[in-house]
Specification:
The protein has 6 helices and 11 strands. The chain is α+β, with helices and mostly antiparallel strands. The strands form 4 sheets. The protein has a 4-stranded mixed sheet, with helices on one face. α2 runs antiparallel to α3. The longest helix has 22 residues. It starts with 9 loop residues before the first strand and ends in a 9-residue tail after the last strand.
């Protein structure tokens, strides 16, 4: 149950429609660690490499403002299942997602947030039937099959982003079967997400309007009721001083 003596958490969601400009990408790389640069170089396709670099650049810009460190001095460390954390005197709850052309980040400001996860996907990406079977329950596939063809792809992507944002907030990621996370709406404005057969009132899930060809989903575990959510677009103001 909600702990009413704890302030409702504020979740800042930041969306960045980045460009593929070579000079900009070279500038973003200055904030990456040696390990991150090595990982970026390992990507086979330039698109994937730029997406990784843009994500780390944005996340470090946001976190540096919270901990009072330069972006290049921040070390982002993956946990056992890939969930990132940062070494700092401040306990931070944050999450990062990348999709072609968009980086999405979520960060808790203040107390009250136990965990947060965000995911984004392009709505024009194709989904094979085999993939649907691997992450959708029977009822979810039946729901999708009843939809008009023009709406089915976006609905499938919405299901996927909601599930992955929840698993990212848990810290397990796709090491857990996405079919353990069941999504329904039942006429409600916000989705209902049930994990392993039980609904936890501390969990809150949202679909964020991205103003683009992307679906963005947010999962928050709050000990003090629904969070306050602020969504903003990132402007790379550092480009003005270079």
């Amino acid at each position: 149950m909600f702990q009413k003596d704890i302030a409702r958490p504020r979740i800042e969601v930041v969306l960045w429609s980045y460009s593929d400009d070579l000079h900009a990408c070279e500038r973003w790389m200055r904030s990456l660690s040696a390990d991150e640069l090595q990982r970026a170089a390992a990507y086979r396709f330039e698109r994937d490499r730029n997406m990784f670099i843009a994500g780390r650049y944005l996340l470090k810009r946001l976190l540096s403002a919270q901990v009072g460190m330069k972006p290049e001095d921040l070390r982002l460390l993956p946990g056992a299942f890939g969930k990132l954390h940062v070494r700092s005197p401040v306990d931070l709850q944050f999450s990062l997602a990348n999709a072609d052309g968009l980086v999405a980040a979520a960060m808790a400001v203040g107390a009250g947030c136990a965990s947060v996860g965000i995911d984004c996907e392009r709505t024009d990406d194709e989904i094979e039937d085999a993939a649907l079977h691997s992450y959708c329950t029977v009822d979810e596939r039946r729901w999708l099959d009843q939809m008009p063809p023009d709406d089915r792809l976006r609905a499938a992507m919405t299901l996927w982003t909601l599930k992955e944002s929840h698993l990212k907030a848990l810290g397990t990621g796709l090491s857990e079967d996405p079919r353990n996370v069941v999504v329904t709406w039942n006429g409600n404005a916000w989705p209902i997400v049930v994990h392993d057969g039980s609904e936890d009132p501390d969990w809150h899930h949202y679909v964020i309007d991205s103003d683009s060809q992307h679906v963005v989903a947010l999962a928050v575990r709050s000990l003090s009721g629904p969070p306050d959510i602020a969504v903003r677009r990132f402007q790379d103001d550092s480009a003005l001083s270079k």
